[in-house]
Amino acid sequence: MKNPTSWFDIPATDFERAKKFYTTILEIELEDYPMPDGKYALFPHNRDAHGASGAILQMADAKPSMDGVTIYLDGGEDLNLPLGRVEAAGGKVIMPKTQIGENGFMALFADTEGNKLAFHSMN
Asked: Measured between alpha carbons, how far is 84 from 92 in angstroms, rounded to an integer?
């Protein structure tokens, strides 16, 4: 096993709002993926690369939450860049960039849907 995480889903109540939030803060494009029981948009991913990717989904049983598991998104070279776009995109910074010793830096934020997530970077 290279990495215990292979995929994540971020629940959304307003699918288009969530897509706009993540495309804005990460400066990426999400790819819509047809689902029979809901809406699904894929984050860019490389199946040959180490690490995990995921999607935004809107389905009846997918509920946003500030509790439970925290997904850490790649903050790039300096997580201050995507973190600086969070509030302008409608989210909220919960914990600013914080050093975590030799493991770099992290920051917590809430997205537009009410999910708690984090950024990680080495700088």
From this structure: 10
Checking phi first, is residue 46 left (phi over 0); if not, alpha (psi -120 to 50) or beta?
A: beta
Which residues on adjacent β-strands are paired with residue 39? 58
Of 28, 87, 37, give the one whose Cα is nearest residue 57. Answer: 37
Q: Tokens 């494009």 belong to which residue?
A: 29
CA–CA separation, 26 vs 24, rounded Å? 6
Tokens of 49: 């690369």
Question: What domains lie within the chain, and their CATH numbers?
Answer: 7-121 (3.10.180.10)
Within 10 Å of residue 34's Cβ, how many Cβ atoms? 7
* Chain segment 35-94, per-residue pLDDT in tens: 999 999 999 987 777 667 899 999 999 999 999 999 999 999 999 999 999 999 999 999
The model's pTM: 0.91
